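[job 4471] stage=fold_predict status=RUNNING
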Amino acid sequence: MLKWSLWVGLDERKLDLEEHLFLRHGGKIVFLGRFVAVLKRTERPSASSRRT
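[job 4471] inference complete, writing structure tokens
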């Protein structure tokens, strides 16, 4: 993982921080990501039906 992370600009310190945050807040991160995806899907029909 470190080999590829250096290619995109992540050093070992940033990877450690990411791992710590995901272990501590992983459930919230996954829930928020899925919730935003649902919001995007539900907004499309209403946005296309608006008249300007």
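[job 4471] summary: The helical segments are 2-7, 12-49.
[job 4471] exit 0
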